[in-house]
């Protein structure tokens, strides 16, 4: 399928050739965003916040 028009919806920004797969894990009462590249976000009380951290990590690459 041909998608015309640049949509900023792809996490495929493989600039360094490294894959960034983010996930949130629970640490006690906190949620932490983690990435396959080794990055780790701060502990958050809300999982939604940890998700935002993960999205920010990928977007900021
Ligand atoms: Zn990463």
UniProtKB/TrEMBL annotation:
Residues 1-61 are annotated as: Disordered. Residues 10-23, 50-61 have a biased composition (Basic and acidic residues). It comes from the Bacteria. This is Uncharacterized protein. It comes from Streptomyces fodineus.
